[in-house]
Amino acid sequence: MGVISTDSPDSAAAATARPAMARVPLARTLVFGAVALLLFLLVVLPFGWVLNNSFHDDLTGAWTLGNYARIFQSADLLEPLFNSLLLAVATAVIAVGIGVPLAWLVSRTDLPFRRTIRVLTLTAFVTPSFIGATGWILLAAPNSGWLNALWRSLAGAEAGPLLNIYSMTGAIFICGIYTVPYSFTMVSSALDEMAVELEDAAATLGSGTLRTMLSITIPLVTPAVIASFILSFIQGLTLFGVPAFLLTPTGIPVVTTKLAEFYQLFPPEIFLAAAYCMPLLLVTAMLFWMRRRILGRKQFVTISGKSRAGRRIALGAARWPAFGAALLLPLVSVFLPYAALLLVSLTRAWGQGLSWENLSLHWYWWALFGNSETHTAIVNSLLFSTLAATLCVMLGTVVAYIVERRMVFGASLFGAVATVPIIIPGIVMSVGFFAAYTRAPLNLYGTPLLLVAAFAATFLPIAYAHGGSILKGIGPELERAARSLGAGEGRTFLSITIPLMGGGLLSGWFLVFIPIIRELSVAVFLITPKTNVMTTLIYNAKDGGNYEAVCAMSVLLLLITLALVVAAGPLTRLTTVRRTSRKSGRKTAPAEGVLPT
Fold first, then answer.
1. 169-202 b/e (C-beta count within 10 Å ≥ 16 → b)
2. What is the distance between the alpha carbons of residues 492 and 480, in angstroms, rounded to a whole number?
3. How far from the centroid of its chain's Cα atoms is residue 81's Cα?
4. Which of 133, 156, 205, 223 has a CA that sits 20 to 30 A from residue 433's CA?
């Protein structure tokens, strides 16, 4: 009878593996616990404090429904709600009404300079709407606006203003043109990825261009159109900068500016502000519920075995008129406001007009070197945005990995919590963080950590959705192979999954960083003089009437943002090429960071 030696290789390997296996549950528990804690601190706790505060009285602190009763019984509080809904509906109609046809022209026709139109439209996308509003104040202020001055010189000095940007119409115009890129981007992406065989078949059977677009193309991109309408509606509903710049001077209130007013009272009505956030939250939640009801049971699929490439629709004699119409959006959202901002920033005194004697780089020198507040705000913007984007992408990617790989029972709950901020307007998130973290024991008011956390929480749904879309395209086979060779879950994730995600993670980082650096509504209640960022400094400086300084800071913010957009493409492509090279095995040595087999 043979006796199995306790020193056999298999037995030794098993003995070595046991401690590692014993550590796995503890490691998983620590990781999942850390992720759950971060989601609780970034999402659940701020929203919970908003909800809790809404049921308390500002004077006594007692539980009450009086805040809600006051909202729906006071005409002064109902008017901003109706104004916000009007602004949101009009913004969404403009965004979809212009963005969808423009996307079709760029993606499906032989429109001249299609690439240029796409780039200029995306330039409007990265332009903060309140900076666009500043440019249009210079152009269309009723008394001093350059376009109105030109109109008076043509029509007579006694003629009234042609345009008045300080009006609901002006706010709708600004919100609309800077929201069109959302609709354009979503619909053009859907059109670019859609097979064109049905359109070709319709054309072969004699269908005209317009009929083909209405009966074939638009129905296939209906999900993108509906999603863009909802997103545009939410943008119009929750924007703070444009109403603050254009409507507050004329006394037209909306919900976001009314919330700021509550915080400026003495003493501030913080609990009433919390209750006043609820209508915004209910409207956005209802819109996403309606989208799910409309699209939840429908499938919009094109079945085809061919590539999506196909002929472009010839516009014929309408080709150049269509190009002229497509240029209108870049004209009003990029060229005119950018030119106004640049010209004013290059003058010592705007009121003295344009002359060689008045041209100067004084305000740029002042912004970069002569003013400590501006220098601090620039550094803060870059630092806070970098930290927030990094935290956001790291957390979003880990949550996406847990959900996509079903790492734990109830993993979908992690994804649900990470998605919740998409229905929480930025200014509501700001109110939530103010309520949750400006009290003992944490008392983070005035600290960079508060702003970084608020930014990360607001844009977490973008990072989570982006990480999930990348992971859907990465099969789990290599991860399983690594696990079978003894690699732990952590090492597998860091050595296999992260390198395979490659350029996707970098593009996701830029996708989060750019909206963070131009975000105003999230920061407006959380900043102090020491933690000012560029957006809040511009907002505060505008009230002082120093438009030369405001324009110089706005141009600097635009240059920083556009430079990052330009840098994002090559960096992402370089990372993607390296990742593809590793996957295809063109390198003989193991790639750095990839587990060798």
1. ebbbbbbbbbbbbbbbbbbbebbeebbbbbbeeb
2. 9
3. 23
4. 133
